[in-house]
Amino acid sequence: MSEIDLYRHSVLGIIECPTPYPFVFGSSTRDVYLYKLEEDVRGAANWVAKKGDIVLGGGSGEAAIFRASMPEAIFFFTNEKWDAFDSISDIYCAYWNVTEAFIFGSGYAKLGWSPNVPLESWLAEHLVSFVLQQYPKMFQSSEDSLNLDQDGRICRAILE
Question: What is the helix (H) or strand (E) element at residue 92, kind and residue range?
Fold first, then answer.
């Protein structure tokens, strides 16, 4: 059972991360699921999120978790004047260790990521672009939105 299963959520999409290394020992899957939280995460051992945030990976038993705060991440990537945050971890946060970062990086490099761009920023921008395109009624951008550098193509929708 993954940590995400302890909280109400919906599945939005999936990324197939072509890393040669397993996310979870003994598992051959390279699929990383994208979820929308339907409740606040309280009491999780290693991560925090609120209702409405999107989470890539499910934690224990699945890929390590990466969280993008919603709607903050949308405002951050689509409105150059928006600066209502104290730290980038208010916008997005990776809850993975160095080994897991290496595993993800080796796969995401095959999908277009380059080490001269922070992996977390590249990934968050792809996720924002994806949800704005695939779920426009659920996630809305600001009226003075900027063009995103990442197009969300690394994700594919799973419509429930």
Answer: strand 92-95
Task: Write out pLDDT tens, residues 25-70.
Answer: 667 778 899 999 999 998 777 888 999 999 999 877 788 999 999 9
What HEC string does 18-46 produce?
Answer: CCCCCCCCCCCCCEEEEEEECCCECCCCC
Question: Residue 126 has which token pair?
Answer: 């792809």
Sign of CA dihedral 27, 95, 41, 155: negative
Q: Please state the domain extents for the chain.
A: 3-157
User: CA-to-CA distance for 57 and 95, rounded, in angstroms?
Assistant: 10
Q: What's the CA gap between 142 and 37, in Å, rounded?
A: 22
